[in-house]
């Protein structure tokens, strides 16, 4: 008992507040009549305990520790030991409801952070984790062919799955989804769908007070020029892909005092492209060639003289490699622009033996990449020439378009009086003219009696596509949106052996 009393007295001296020491006799006197008992002191608020401890440790003015007087206690009361408690953050005790919003854990656990850093969290990208056979089952259930094409543009693995031999079950998209028209007074060119795929350029960043019209198209891209009220001193061009729903606004070069002879879209590898613009200044024998590259997002310019007067004419263009060919029908010449060396020249047309005017002749290219020229003789005779050498044209066998009309494909056009000669309109004939040529598929488009008609080189038949309901707005050129290749590996700049993952 004596040893226990000594330990209790020692504990009482050590736990008494700083500044007031109690002797063992004082402690012994305060416990007279009370049973020796050690009990847990009552908990105090953390802030109050911290404040008291700080006050106890502050030095007094005389350099000694400031004494905090102990409260007066009755003689029979055991002093409560002072316990220094650190402030702790509020957290739910064990067994509480941890799903409440207040106690929701937001910081990831170490194993979760490590799994996310290693890219092993497959729950974030479940579609990319599907095997190829399940991907094909999903692709088969996409109703429009446009969605399959867009899936092929997601990543390399999906592209290889769609282009693989197992993808024969997928529906092959049409070679042409439809065509666009420069249809006045529409502020944006409307799209006429021919394969059940609705496209459009309604999302173009064109202010309402302005309008945009198509100046060239190639593959699935459109080259458009923005115009506004009054004269615009700069050339505002946009390159958009309605199928991919993308649009690029090109830097606007200053062209005041110049006339735009041609603006041509030149496709590149993958998503890259170039835009070639030819300008004629006040001097008719002076030209400027501007080439925009999507890789550098900038223009390059070159100027020079030309040895003959070249007027600004409306006409189609063809791209073969790095060379742009622009038809100058009234001048009986083809403008040749070398986009790589930025040079300009001209070449003569073949001897057609017929009068040439707007609409009855066109240019294109063959399957092996040679320039070709089309013309309409008499009423419905289509003649084709192929450029075999510089300045040497070879005439091909003529074709009578009337023999390519099947009533099931062209309807009443098979019995309609049609002619490519403008003078035959006085005798009640409906005019026939060229409208477009698709370089990837070799398809020719015509306007026949307010109908858009396509000549498919695979079948050799004419097929009418769309009828113009408003005769007050005559049809001009059409701009088809075509699929360059299916499967889409080459079209998207990939090879079958391309490595990598999504």
TrEMBL record:
Q: Which domain of life is it from?
A: Eukaryota
Domain named F-box is located at 124-162
> Which CDD domains does the record cross-reference, listed alphabetically?
F-box_SF
Region of interest called Disordered, as start-end residue ranges on this chain:
1-124
| InterPro entries, per database record | AT5G49610-like_b-prop (IPR056594), F-box-like_dom_sf (IPR036047), F-box_dom (IPR001810)
The annotated regions of Basic and acidic residues compositional bias extend over 19-31, 108-123
> What name does UniProt use for this protein?
F-box domain-containing protein
